[in-house]
Amino acid sequence: MSSTSTPSDQPGPGDRPRVPAQGSPSRPSAQSAPTASASPSAARSGPEPVLRLEELTRVHGSGATEVHALRGIDLDVFPGELVAVMGPSGSGKSTLLTIAGGLDLPTSGRVVVEGTDLSAASRKELAALRRRSIGYVFQDYNLIPALTAAENVALPRELDGVSTRRARKEALAALEEMGLGHLADRFPDEMSGGQQQRVAIARALVGDRRLVLADEPTGALDSETGEAVLALLRTRCDAGAAGVLVTHEPRFAAWADRVVFLRDGSVVDMTLRSSAESLLTGGAAS
Amino acid sequence: MSGSGGTEAGRFHAWRAAVRIARRDAWRYKGRSALVLAMIALPIMGVSAADITVRSSELTKQQQVTRDIGAADARLGSGGMGHRPLVQSPVNEEALPADQKQDESEQARDEADSDVDPRTAIPAGARWITDQSTYARIRTRSGLLDTSVRELKADDPIAAGIVDLDRGRFPRSPDEMIATQALLKSSGLHVDSLVRVRGFDRAYRIVGAYDLPSELGVEELTALPGAFIAGYTSAMKAAGSAYEGQNGPPSYLVSLPGGYSWPMVMHANSLGVVVESREVRLHPPARADVPFYRVAKTSTGVVQTGVQKAETVAAPVTVGALAILEVCLLAGPAFAVGARRSRRQLGLVGANGGDRRHIRAIVLSGGLVIGVVAAVTGTLLGLALTALLRGWLEEYVGKRFGGLALRPLELAAIAGLAVLTGLLAAVVPAVNASRQSVLSSLTGRRGVRHAGRVMPVIGLGAVCLGTGIAVFGSTRTDSVMVVGLGSGVAELGVVALTPVLVGAFGRFGRWLPTAPRLALRDAVRNRGRTAPAVAAVLAAVAGSVAVATYAASQDRQDHDAYTARAPRGVYAVSSGSDGGRELGAVRAAVEKHFPVSGRADVSRLVYGPRTCEPHSYQSGCGGFELQVPTANQCPSERVDDPTQLSLAERRSFATDWRCAYGGGQVAMDTEGDVTVGGPAVLHALGIRDGAAERALARGETVLFDRRYDDHGSLRLRLITDMAKQQTDDRTPSGEVRTVPVHVAGERTPYGLVAVMPRQAALAAGFRTVPFGSYYTTSRMPSGAQQQALAGALANFGSDAETYLEKGYQSKNHLVLLALSIFAGLVTVGAAGIATGLAQADAEPDLKTLAAIGAAPGVRRRLSGFQCGLIAAMGVVLGSLAGVLPAIGLRRAQLREEWSTYHTAVDNGWGRADSLPHVPIVVPWGTLVLLMLAVPLGATLLAAAVTRARPQLTRRADG
């Protein structure tokens, strides 16, 4: 995937890893980016996207109370890619994420995760997909208070019927890999917010899951801790996962390979991260 | 990808995770867990304690034998059949003559023979002691007490285990006795008191207190052998007292090496001796070796029919099922609160791939965890409670336990009920929680949770079906069971319909002030949460109201069926012994202690010696019989078998005055219910009949039962010797005396058949013997006055019979109060839990209220009204659901009684004065208490325990 180095322990936008500009099959071309559609993949060859959104619309309510949360969104997210979604409040960022994760269903359009069309999946199949393919990270209160860090990470595997011992082993391995092994037996209320978010990322990727959907994962954290969390997310994506990050903060969006701007449910702009920085400094997200 | 979620092992692992979350959650929210735990564990504690108590009071054979015969090998006693050989059962001492062919007169002669001496069956070399009892009347602090006096050397090693000496010591000399604790308690005597026996001039000192381990309530004194019975019997014989001859035959406790085997028992039986053998009890002989079973061909045991068995099983099962339903309804909302509070957590599980099955498993695991803990806690507490209250329980059961008997399987089954209850209580919250979308759980969007639509439809169906069955039962059949079944089904239907009914209450909202309006709207909009709590209250109140209605109706029935023996406040005192010699002293005592306003002396009609007691069958005592003229006899009495008569004839008896016997009970029991006295007797009994009074004044007998009227006279057949009359079955053929009578209009008032002036009795050749007095009182004598009089009468050892007419005494008010309190507690509990649930939901509303400037008190008022509303809705619905089945049951009972009555009429037994009477009374007092006091109490309580200020929630730090 990525041929560049991973973030250091004290990351920052300055020493952020470089995105492979060309030759990488996982990158959308820069030319295709700044269009209303975020899905340029129709004629693409190479690996399949982990997440594909096609002509996605979501309408809440009906009649006088009708609200168009999403209007015809197209987006592909490939393995090794971290896509940031930005936009003002009510622009449809979170709706996009919940539909991508199968927590909500689109009014029209298609959501395909690792080849499975979510619109056609049963409720059980959706749950199974969340256990095996999709990981979520929310703004706060991500962990189940009654379970230790290791048990939280092991939960999706246990729910999937994996034996407790094996699930724990996998969870410990995941925590170790992210340098969180020492937190394994702590309960959420014995950890800091940053630690909790990092454990949540570990949980989002335990097993064979390759899609991380993070909804403002740094919203409740101070900036330094937020950077550390983003660095971890970036590392996991560089290791092969696909990530979608909803954020308000341009400096966190700068960790992404692409930034998608939403307004009133439509993609108004899309940029590669390098261009994103200039866009951001130009105040595009404000 | 690993996908073992669907396999058995996979399900197990997913359940393990669910149980882990539930277990830790239960521990985190200790208050709520403890509440639910208590609700489930308390009934389990009661049931397991009851089980342990019942099982502990069942003794092993060895323990039972030791309590019966001590350390002896056998107890030998007379079979009561003289020297005739007998056969006995090896399990108890039931005995039958070995030869059944002997005719009864021969048997009677044998019984009258001098009884067999059981000592003839004691083998050589055996050691034995005697055990014999008699009855005596001892003087106590407050009067006289009939008690058993036993002669047994209780401290002999042979008797070890029969008595359990609690304090003091065993008797050492013939003037010492030991007494049971029960006797000391009821007599007011104590260790070291002197016991005096009426009619016997010796006094005994009580030197110890003991218990009979299997009969704790028995009042008994024990003296050394030869110390009491012989002397007492001769003293009684000398005084000609009725207490003479009440001695049981002596039995012998025998100790012999090798025990008393079954062949030895059979040998003793051949001598007419019955044996209670330790060896035979512990190792009974084969059935074929027991001649008793061949002789006793018919079983003496009561065989339950299938229906009876079913009823025996059905009652506790129904009560148990209702208790589980009630606990589920109460605990259900608590689990719903839990699920609602941990909504975010359940949402996270959903986001991490938990499907509905997993969410259900987590909430159900909450029920499982609390159920298991409740099972263990309840069982352990039950055991501890039984161990702790052992002494009290033994007193209550009436026997000492053999030890704490634990039946693991039974206790496990009882504990299993706790687990089942926990799981059942969590089912509905689990299903509801799993239906929540993951998204709304995560975002905390509240929305309005509508109740399901299926349950109300099922409920409506059940209500219609149940009502139909109940109406059919009470109008077309006479089966109480059918009505009960119908009512049960309908009530479950009402429980299922609760969400819809709760919705109906919402219409009242617009007229209410802010806090109650908000509470009502919230309750109605969130029916899914309100309904279980209302249903719990409904079920408890319906049950209580149904029982209360039934009890109040039964109370009215008992009241109407009560027959007074005299007008209220009238006191009757009579003394039949010694020709009424003590009456002077008795009357003086009554007049001293009671607020007496009038007195009517009565005598009794005696034919023969005046010292004979009323109804005495002693040799030499005479008597008489009132004669019913043939024309006045009920036609059914004239034939042996009424079925020989036509149906019309048999039915006609129901309205025939000759077949209606006068009702009522007399306060003074004279021969033939004929009272000798004047007009004062009528005055004292409140019988206002001028003609009767005038008749008495002119010396004419007043007859209250016209069946005895033979053309203006009463015929009395004389009996010269009652003892002979008793042994001779033929109709007495004595002389008949005729007394002219005035027939009164009122029929047998207070059981009186006739009042005869003294001169009329003398003219007919009878003696009259003073018997007692009727006293009218200016007010009902108080408890203290009654005790003072009883004490005064006891002081001079009076045998006087006394009766104070207090009117009907209801025993039901305590039942009604207990039911009201029970229903009230359940109501407050259920409403409280539901209020907690509402509070958990309403936190954002309360914050909004606070933000727009509502006073802190609004929070309290809202919480109070939420609680009160649930209580009110439950109580109103429950009262309706309770009164109706009770009325149905009473109607079915009435039909059943009419049906029995018609059968009786058709068979010629019907009586016009015994028409079925099953009144229906609604217990308004209980209903008012429930409908007003309970919701008000719930409102105030909830308002009092609610925090006025909102709680600040902690924000996660970064």
From TrEMBL, chain A:
One Pfam family cited in the UniProt record for this chain: ABC_tran
Xref: SUPFAM superfamilies: P-loop containing nucleoside triphosphate hydrolases
Coiled coil: none
Region Disordered, annotated ranges: 1-48
Keyword ATP-binding annotated: yes
Ranges for domain ABC transporter: 51-284
PROSITE patterns given in the database record: ABC_TRANSPORTER_1, ABC_TRANSPORTER_2
Superkingdom in the source lineage: Bacteria
Name of the featured protein: ABC transporter ATP-binding protein
Species of provenance: Actinacidiphila acidipaludis
Lineage: Bacteria, Bacillati, Actinomycetota, Actinomycetes, Kitasatosporales
